[in-house]
Design a protein that fits this description.
Layout lengths: L7 H37 L8 H38 L7 H31 L10 H37 L1
Helix pairs in contact: 1-2, 1-4, 2-3, 3-4
């Protein structure tokens, strides 16, 4: 069945639901990133809250792994809903629309962080024990610090791209 053949009484609620899914996926992803970066990490690393920085790092690391899973699902939901919405609104899915390209880049960075960077950080922590006890010139410490810096850069980039995705999505939904 062609999308144009659907009655307006069916299309309008479906388009509203697709807009809802697009916005919900962005809220879940960006809200999770903002919470992790500006609330959870500073809180658990604040002095006196937990007995060790190692424990704080374990909490944030596990939270980041869970956030990445949520982000990947959110990104896929966003892309499917947005492509369908564009197809219904304009007759063209617009796979190269800015919001779609930004979302693909966000997903790519998240997948790299989750499946390339995070496992290496976890492996170094398992091998080295308490990272703060390693000398600054220790090869494991240097590698951990290097990967940690990349992890932070990836998350910052995803957050900034997510804000761009939110803006371009709001802009596109306002036009249609």
């Amino acid at each position: 069945m062609r999308l144009q053949a659907l009655p307006a009484a069916t299309i309008i609620p479906l388009m509203s639901f697709l807009r809802f899914l697009m916005l919900l996926s962005l809220v879940v992803w960006l809200g999770g990133l903002i919470f992790l970066a500006f609330v959870e990490a500073p809180t658990v690393f604040s002095s006196g809250l937990l007995p060790t920085r190692q424990m704080a790092g374990s909490i944030v690391g596990r939270s980041l792994d869970l956030l990445h899973s949520m982000a990947i699902v959110s990104g896929i939901v966003f892309l499917i809903a947005s492509l369908l919405y564009s197809r219904m609104a304009t007759g063209n899915a617009r796979p190269l629309a800015g919001r779609h390209l930004v979302m693909v880049l966000m997903l790519l960075l998240t997948v790299i962080s989750q499946f390339a960077i995070s496992p290496k950080l976890h492996a170094i922590r398992a091998e080295a024990g308490v990272i703060d006890n390693l000398a600054l010139d220790n090869p494991l410490r240097r590698e951990f610090d290097r990967l940690h810096a990349w992890s932070e850069k990836f998350e910052e980039a995803v957050l900034l791209l997510g804000l761009v995705a939110l803006y371009t999505t709001a802009q596109a939904l306002g036009r249609q």
